[in-house]
Structures are given as structure tokens and as C-alpha cells.
């Protein structure tokens, strides 16, 4: 793992062996859980949640993953923006229909990427609505 730190910003970079998908919105790099900034995983069914986790696994598989981490947390998780070989993982999750834009935190950054019908299929939680 490569770690770079400046002020409150932290960048973690990991090879595939040091990163795994905990949930459809959370990666773990060398033991550090990182919640992807601005998206929300499906919460309406276990099947949808597991499908989202599997999709993120496909996105990162064989990739070099980097995360810019903020000083904010949700519980024990750090909040970060992560890429797999330079591709924004959160954007890929939303565009594939496996996660939703969390407008409260993203300011709508990923909303246009949501496929038609995603909001009716993957019901957003109240915490993500403005």
C-alpha cells in the first residue's frame, strides 16, 4: 500500500491483493474501510445489495485502486473518492444501475448517470435526499 498525506487529505493506493469490497458502497484498503463519497448502495433487498457488491468487485478486479480520503467519517468508515485504473468507481456503480446518487452529499454529481427506472427499483434512503 502507498500512503500519501497532506493536511487533512489522505490518498491510499493499493494493488488488487490489498483491497476488497465490503458492500456496494464500501471498499477496504489494507484494513481501512472507505465509504464512496456521494453514492448509496441498494438497501431495499439483500439480493440487490449483494448484486451491487458483486458489481463493484467486477469494477475493481485486476485494477490499481486509489482513494482520496477526506477527514469526514460515517461511523468507523472514512469517506473517499476512489478510482480503479483511473475510472471513478462511484460513477461506474451509478451508471451500471447498482447504486444511486446520494444528492445530500454529492450535490447531484452522479444523478445524470442513473439509468431510467433506477430510483424506483433502488429506493433511496431519507438520509440521501436533500
UniProtKB/TrEMBL annotation:
Matches recorded under SUPFAM superfamilies: Staphylococcal nuclease
InterPro entries xref list: SNase_OB-fold_sf
Gene3D superfamilies in UniProt: 2.40.50.90
Top-level taxon: Bacteria
Name of the molecule in the record: Nuclease homologue
Amino acid at each position: 500500500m502507498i500512503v500519501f498525506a497532506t493536511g487533512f487529505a489522505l490518498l491510499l493506493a493499493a494493488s488488487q491483493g490489498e483491497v476488497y469490497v465490503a458492500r456496494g458502497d464500501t471498499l477496504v484498503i489494507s484494513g481501512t474501510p472507505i465509504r464512496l463519497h456521494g453514492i448509496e448502495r441498494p438497501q431495499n433487498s439483500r439480493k440487490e445489495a449483494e448484486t451491487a457488491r458483486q458489481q463493484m468487485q467486477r469494477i475493481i478486479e485486476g485494477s490499481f485502486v486509489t482513494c482520496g480520503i477526506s477527514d469526514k467519517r460515517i461511523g468507523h468508515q472514512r469517506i473517499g473518492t476512489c478510482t480503479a485504473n483511473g475510472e471513478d468507481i462511484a460513477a461506474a456503480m451509478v451508471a451500471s444501475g447498482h447504486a444511486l446518487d446520494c444528492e445530500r452529499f454529492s450535490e447531484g454529481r452522479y444523478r445524470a448517470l442513473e439509468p431510467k427506472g433506477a430510483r424506483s427499483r433502488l429506493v433511496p434512503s431519507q438520509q440521501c435526499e436533500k
